[in-house]
Design a protein that fits this description.
mainly beta, Immunoglobulin-like, 5-stranded antiparallel sheet, 3-stranded antiparallel sheet, 1 helix, globular
Length: 127
């Protein structure tokens, strides 16, 4: 029977043999067009909630997030994408809603603001 320490050492050896690819962070791929990208390979669903879609319905009459608004498409490489090419010039706040309950700001974007006591990201769309 393999104990925990032995299993850990085997895992480290496999990682070293494979070129330490387990420890290399995923890089954002180049995408043509205007898309938001979010890397969350284990997610079941991801939505972008933002100024441009009334925060998924929170700001509309019902005040409930619509699971269809801002739905992102999962790619085979673990990235989620959504087209933002229709946005007009301006500054927009946004965040990602993972699996219907977890708000996450775009960690690849250093520009932040606050929406309902949540730190969210800001994107500037130019002409």
């Amino acid at each position: 029977m393999i104990n925990k320490r032995m299993a850990f050492l085997i895992t480290i050896q496999v990682a070293l043999i494979s070129g330490c690819s387990f420890f290399v962070p995923m890089e954002k791929p180049q995408v043509q067009g205007e898309q938001l990208l979010f890397w969350m390979p284990g997610a079941i669903s991801v939505q972008v909630l933002s100024d441009w879609n009334e925060w998924g319905g929170i700001e509309s009459a019902g005040g409930i997030i619509d699971p269809v608004i801002g739905r992102m498409k999962k790619q085979d490489n673990g990235f989620w994408t959504v087209d933002i090419s229709e946005l007009t010039a301006g500054s927009y706040r946004y965040a990602f809603l993972v699996n219907g309950y977890r708000w996450i700001r775009d960690l690849e974007n250093p520009e932040t603001a606050v929406f309902r006591d949540q730190v969210v990201s800001v994107i500037l769309i130019s002409d």
